[in-house]
Specification:
Elements (H helix, E strand, L loop, with lengths): L3 E8 L2 H16 L3 E5 L4 H7 L5 H8 L3 E6 L5 H6 L15 H8 L4 E7 L13 E7 L9 E2 L4 H10 L16 E2 L5 H18 L3 E6 L7 H13 L6 E6 H10 L6 E4 L1 H14 L7 E5 L4 E5 L16 H14 L2 H17 L13 H10 L2
Parallel strand pairs: 1-2, 1-3, 3-12, 5-10, 8-9, 8-10
Antiparallel strand pairs: 4-5, 4-11, 6-7, 11-12
The structure holds 3-isopropylmalic acid and magnesium ion.
3-isopropylmalic acid binds next to α5.
């Protein structure tokens, strides 16, 4: 029996292409693992009205962790229209399977390292080394939403907060509500993870990115909790910034920042910004990490127009694979993989189109494998 069981979830579009690339390096590394394919994505939405079938959930339960490619997501109405006819009009609502996976398996930490590898022509500045800790199961992603707004919800809110009166003149079918729900536990966990990481890798500060001057309760909870947690790490400074200003500071002085920690929605936004500083989504790797399992994925989408062409940059996927190796405890393999990746980038001979080259995803993976 293999040492590890890994759920293999290519998903949609170029997710399949980059997973092919990941397989090339994993085979070369000879990781002692069994890779078990799982169904996830648009095809299963269309034909089963469920992009994340129960059998896939079971599979992940039975594996050590999962490697995931990419997923196609569309707004509610568009998604409904693409269902096979017999499933249409039955009230099925599309929900992103990756968001569901995060909640179903309590993958509470979304870890997104953004490092400028030397020689990457897409680097905004050399030397950038930012790691985003994004709370991964709460906040505006809780999925607690209302439309049209039920009367009793409106009344209950009004009873507790008179500011709701401002919306009285709007009829129910013209008011949409998405709740931002954050818990002390959620805040404490993500901030603690960020500080532990800073401690382990020698970062001198952790920056909590929120908006407590306006969103007093939820952002306030995160910042207050960060201050509490910070007391346990006297050698690491806590910096506090607002999300809007942070977007400017990251463009102005990206080298000033190391570990960032934030809530789910702000983390989604700021991690794309940070990814762009180091080469864009082709370099954006991530780990969705829980206590029992984890799902590693590049943060790019499924780019349907490139599907099957092996055109997109597999680096984000390969770096996610490195994160998986680290999480499994195969840190020596993880290091070797990162060294091979950075040496291919530095040499600059084998590059996908986004980096100005004409190589395929697979050629890039082969170049990395050749250096292992
Ligand atoms: C990400 C993506 C997802 C998110 C989408 C695909 C649901 O943007 O992982 O950052 O919003 O979290
Ligand atoms: Mg995103």
């Amino acid at each position: 029996m293999a040492k590890y069981k890994i759920a293999w979830l290519p998903g949609d579009g170029v997710g399949v292409d980059v997973m092919d690339a990941a397989k090339i390096v994993l085979d070369k590394l000879q990781l002692d693992a069994e890779y078990i394919p799982g169904d996830i994505g648009w095809e299963f939405w269309r034909t089963e009205a469920n992009p994340l079938p129960d059998r896939t959930i079971d599979l992940i339960h039975n594996c050590d962790c999962a490697l995931f490619g990419a997923i196609t997501s569309k707004p509610k109405e568009e998604a409904e229209n693409e269902l096979i006819p017999e499933l249409r009009g039955k009230g099925h609502i599309y929900a992103s399977p990756i968001v569901r996976l995060r909640q179903e398996f309590d993958l509470r930490t979304n870890l997104r390292p953004c490092k400028a590898y030397t020689g990457n022509p897409l680097n905004y500045k050399d030397g950038i080394d930012i790691v985003v800790f994004r709370e991964n199961t709460e906040d505006l992603y809780s999925g607690v939403e209302f439309f049209p707004l039920p009367d009793d919800v409106r009344e209950a809110v009004m009873k507790h907060n008179k500011k709701m009166a401002r919306f009285d003149k709007h009829p129910a079918n013209e008011v949409a509500v998405s709740l931002r729900i954050n818990t002390k536990t959620g805040c404490r966990n993500i901030v603690t993870d960020a500080f532990e990481y800073a401690k382990k890798f020698g970062y001198k500060s952790v920056t909590v990115v929120e908006k407590p001057n306006v969103i007093r309760e939820t952002s306030g909870l995160m910042v207050r909790t960060a201050r509490e947690v910070a007391k346990n790490y006297p050698d690491i400074q806590l910096w506090e910034t607002n999300i809007d200003a942070m977007c400017m500071w990251l463009i102005k002085n990206p080298l000033d920042y190391g570990v960032l920690v934030t809530s789910n929605m702000f983390g989604d936004i700021i991690s794309d910004l940070c990814a762009q500083l180091v080469g864009g989504l082709g370099f954006a790797c991530s780990g969705n990490i829980g206590d029992d399992t984890a799902v590693f994925e590049p943060t790019h989408g499924s780019a349907p127009k490139y599907a099957g062409q092996h055109k997109v940059n597999p680096m984000a996927m390969l770096l996610s694979t490195k994160m998986m190796l680290d999480w499994l405890g195969e840190t020596e393999m993880g290091e070797r993989l990162e060294e091979a990746i950075s040496s291919v980038i530095k040499e600059g001979k084998v590059r996908t189109y986004d980096m100005g080259g004409s190589n395929t995803s697979l050629e890039v993976a082969q170049a990395v494998a050749a250096r292992l």
